[in-house]
Each structure stands twice: as structure tokens, then as C-alpha cells.
Design brief:
This protein is an alpha+beta fold and 275 residues long. It contains four helices and 16 strands. The longest helix is centred in the middle third of the chain and has 17 residues.
Length: 275
């Protein structure tokens, strides 16, 4: 097995081997490629990037909705999100003002959790059962777990935070030729009750993420984010509802904060961003 790089603290690799499901067992050394790939995901998550999002949502109340946006972390909080289409129509001035206010508030709170990918993986390893599936250069790690963890849903029509402690299946797919995480899936066996932004009740069943890379780069070139939910139709039957975000044109940019460097000696702003 090709060895991946080990995170500086090495904590996760000191865990004793984990009893696997289906009568299988994984020794801690077999987790090395996964640990290295998740470490790269945390680097990616903390990087400043620009990208385009094309979101479609099968809404229980409004049918098929499409939203297209552009995000650029090098811009000021008020300017970093450009909304091209919101729910099938050009965005209103009121909605654009709302998004601007949210971005400014989020910038002030700076609520991004460091090492979020690694913290979840640590919990899955310490408190879950795991087995491996190998298909040529793709290693799939499958965990069955039920420990408490916080999740965030990111979408214009479904968004928010929740905690979950019931049984779930978590899968990671690692491309061993590049050392990158190319797939992530979480399945909630009992579902999770949520609401969309219109107030419609949904049962969240599955979250799937995919990432496409050029060679071993930390920043992907594209990716996808899919939520699979269910809601009752007019006859009370459960119908699948999906929210899909296609994310493209990823590129690394200089963070807005870094573009506002202040020369203490001269007491002046060296670069105040785009003119």
C-alpha cells in the first residue's frame, strides 16, 4: 500500500485497530492514505478560493428551482458573492442586499472550524467500525457510527446546522495515485428532520460530495454537492427531493485580509484591493 503523508500531530495514527463490519478488520496503518487525504481537505477548506456554483432544487412547494452564483474570497465581504440567477429569475435588489449583509456578518464572526474534516474522521475512527473496499487505485473506507457530531448544510434553498447522534454510514474515497479525497458520502439510516428555506418539511437521507483534481493539487478543479431528501406528496406518499450544487472554475486566490496589508512603519495601506 502506498504511504501517504502523516499529519504533524500524528494523533490519529496512534489509535489501535478498529473492529470492522461484515467480519472484517482494519489495522491503523491501512488508514494512512485516508488521513493524508483528509489533511489535504482541511488545507483546501481553509484556503481562499474563487468558484462558480450552479444549484438546482426539486422544491416541494415551488417545483424545479435553479440558482447560479459566483464566489471570490479575494474580494471584500460585501462584494465576494455575485448572484446571477436566483430561483429561476434575476435576483431582486432586496435579495442581493440580504446576501451582502449575511456575507459581512459571516466575515465578522469568522466561524470556520479549523480541521473540521479531521475532527469528523477522528470521531469515526475512535467510535465507529470500519472496513475497506479496493477498486484499482480507489480506496473506499466505510464507517458505521453513531457518535455526536455537528453538520452544516450549504445551499441557497437548504441551509443550516444540526447535531446528529443516530446510526449513520460514512464513506470516504481516496485516489491513491494523487493522494486526494475524491468522494464523501453520509447516509442517515433514520433520516434527519429539516426544513428548506420556504418552510417545507423534509427528511434528509444522504449527503454526497465529489471532487475532481488535476494531478495531486490540493485545490480541485470542480466538484459536486448533493442532498437527497424525502417529503410527502398530496397523497401522503414519500417522494425523493434533491438539491444538487455543481461547483466549477475553482482557483486559488489571495485572501482579502492578505490584500489589506498594512505597513506599520509608514502607517499606510499598501494594497487596498481592486480599483
Amino acid at each position: 500500500m502506498r504511504e501517504g503523508s502523516v499529519p504533524p500531530d500524528g494523533n490519529i495514527l496512534t489509535i489501535k485497530r478498529t473492529d470492522g463490519i461484515f467480519g472484517k478488520m482494519i489495522h491503523r496503518d491501512a488508514l494512512t492514505p485516508l488521513v493524508a487525504a483528509v489533511t489535504k481537505m482541511d488545507i483546501f477548506a481553509s484556503s481562499c478560493t474563487a468558484f462558480t456554483i450552479d444549484e438546482t432544487y426539486d422544491s416541494p412547494s415551488a417545483g424545479n428551482l435553479r440558482t447560479i452564483t459566483r464566489f471570490d474570497a479575494s474580494q471584500s465581504p460585501a462584494d465576494r458573492v455575485e448572484i446571477i440567477i436566483y430561483n429561476n429569475a434575476p435576483p431582486s435588489d432586496e435579495f442581493k442586499a440580504l446576501i451582502t449583509r449575511r456575507m459581512v456578518e459571516a466575515y465578522g464572526e469568522k466561524t470556520i472550524m479549523p480541521r473540521a474534516w479531521m475532527k469528523e474522521l477522528e470521531g469515526n475512527i475512535k467510535r465507529g467500525a470500519c472496513h475497506m473496499e479496493i477498486n484499482e487505485n480507489i480506496f473506499k473506507y466505510v464507517f458505521m457510527t453513531r457518535h455526536v457530531i455537528n453538520y452544516s448544510l450549504s445551499g441557497f434553498n437548504i441551509r443550516g446546522h444540526f447535531s446528529h447522534s443516530k446510526k449513520r454510514r460514512v464513506e470516504y474515497e481516496v485516489d491513491t495515485t494523487t493522494g486526494n479525497l475524491v468522494g464523501y458520502r453520509i447516509f442517515f439510516f433514520d433520516g434527519k428532520d429539516i426544513k428548506d428555506m420556504s418552510g417545507s418539511k423534509l427528511k434528509l437521507l444522504e449527503v454526497v460530495r465529489t471532487y475532481n483534481y488535476i494531478s495531486a493539487n490540493v485545490i480541485p478543479v470542480s466538484g459536486s454537492y448533493r442532498l437527497r431528501c424525502q417529503s410527502p406528496d398530496a397523497d401522503g406518499r414519500q417522494v425523493d427531493r434533491t438539491l444538487v450544487r455543481i461547483i466549477g472554475d475553482y482557483k486559488k486566490v489571495t485572501c482579502y485580509d492578505d490584500r489589506l496589508r498594512v505597513d506599520i512603519g509608514e502607517g499606510m495601506i499598501v494594497d487596498d484591493g481592486p480599483k
